[in-house]
Amino acid sequence: MAPETPGNEPQALSNLLHENRRFEPPVELAAAANVTEAAYTQAAADRLAFWEGAADRLTWAKRWETTLEWNAPFAKWFIGGELNVAYNCVDRHVEEGRGDKVAYYWEGEPEGDTRVLTYNDLKSEVSKAANALLELGVRKGDRVAVYMPMIPELPIAMLACARIGAIHSVVFGGFSATALKSRIDDADAKLVITADGGYRRGNPSALKPTVDEAVAQCPQVEHVLVVRRTGQNVAATDKDVWWHDLVERQSDQHTPEPHDAEDPLYILYTSGTTGRPKGILHTTGGYLTQTAWTHDAVFDLKPDKDIYWCTADIGWVTGHSYIVYGPLANGATSVIYEGTPDTPHRGRFWEIVQKYKVTLLYTAPTAIRTFMKWGDDIPAKYDMSSLRVIGSVGEPINPEAYVWYRENIGGSRCPVVDTWWQTETGAVMISPLPGVTSGKPGAAMRPLPGIVADVVDDQGNSVPNGGGGFLVIREPWPSMLRTIWGDDQRYIDTYWSRFEGMYFPGDGAKKDEDGDLWLLGRVDDVMLISGHNISTTEVESALVSHPKVAEAAVVGATDPVTGQAIVSFVILRGTAEESDDIAADLRNHVAKTLGPIAKPRQILVVPELPKTRSGKIMRRLLRDVAENRSVGDVTTLADSTVMDLISEKLPSAKSED
Ligand code: WT7
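# WT7 complex -> structure
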């Protein structure tokens, strides 16, 4: 999500937080690691040869002729190559004798509601679904909107589209009818795949009425294909077709045709910081190459031994790349969980880890900080000794949250991989490698082999070690977005105009003394305090490093003296009591950790923070509160009542000193 109009940006970002803890890779893991230091050397010597090697891990119907064609900022990878993504994710594992291997252990939210899909099962299901799409008149290049709960039919629908060359556009099941309609319209989808509903927090939660409302205004939609999941009543429209009627009667044989490496695979909308959603377009060969390679490298995946679980929703890019395409291309065994972490109890995640003996776990800082808030005693009740590598994605992970995750979930033995990437990048770009990197809590460390990232000042000059500024990517990468659907100019303006010849993702970052990278949050969130550009991430991390704090969000509010002043919102840990002197305590703690410049003017203890449905803190709304404005647009909030809870706290907010 890059900013639409970069503005009010820092010249350089202050580097305040110093962190000295180091965690070496476990000796046994390092000795058997899939990827070693040699990969960096090889990629640095010949980047394109490195990606060719990664592409060769896939099965191509026709090998490519040219590895990269770069008409900046438009890239084509593996030109002339042909492959079928669904064949790579499913059929080839069956053909190579792995048909009985489990692809997905699916765990529904209602306890005991489970399904197991082997690669054989997946092949039949995907083939039937592909035949069903063909019967509905869907052809190569057509767009299919997918609005579903986290049930096996979701990846099956995506793979069926990929198989026939239709372009899926998965819309997260929490979005409104208006959001769904605008996405259906933008991509001009002719089919919508949905379900009656899904389970959320212990109850069936309807999806179909939202689809009906959206589709009523979308004449281009010819059919709505509906999976029966909850059995709740659904109003029938003349476009409806039941999945169990149509798909179940199809042949389970379907021959996948090869598609061009640059044929579109999917569109995924990202809202960015303002207004109209952007349809991020990903294509076939480069995308699958980088998702598969990074999944293997970053998690050190051993497909015959590992049980992998990514807790994201498939409606986000994390789910696309690391529940569906990367893991399946690698022939992995994954867990998919339908519901929320607190249903029916706050130990549900750890119960699932214990039940399936999960070895590789991938989750988000927002979830980790919630678990911190709930208390250490909950994960302590479960046997999680199976875990071997644990990952984080979505926001900067505060050092304290990283250490909590490492100790309480990873048993102090698992490397934590903090993976930086975006919907637009398609796959992980900056991350430790678990068998190579000596981890620093809070740092995403180094660009992966084959990725050329840097931190630059506002003139686009590389900053020295110890300096902060703007993260940029200097060279094209295989899984990069190709454009914004239907809007090349917006693609150029949004990502390629801030710095000449460089991709600007919209994030601030710093290089430490060793040259390792630390992500500092969105540049639109940076605060300008007495002439210093201070990142929200560093102040939040300082707050979270106090033993009483589980989660923090800070914003800059207009201040007559300092230009902007720091206002902090904190959630206390499960065990901490709110006391009169907590605010003074925390202010002093930040001043001691980062220096007096970063001392918050105000601290508000709040029960919750405003977050998007993907778990990112919406600082824009907190700025409204901090500046006593009426709170802006809350439609993208996961829970719209949160702002009332926070505003209630405001009268008690007083500035000390
Ligand atoms: C933005 C992208 C990548 C899949 C999920 C989010 C932030 C993501 C990290 C990280 C610091 C991170 C960035 C990025 N972000 N991962 N490890 N450390 N920040 O995809 O919704 O497109 O969001 O999330 O700000 O630009 P997305």
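# post-check
The chain has two domains: 27-508, 524-655.
Confidence is low (pLDDT under 50) at residues 1-10, 652-657.
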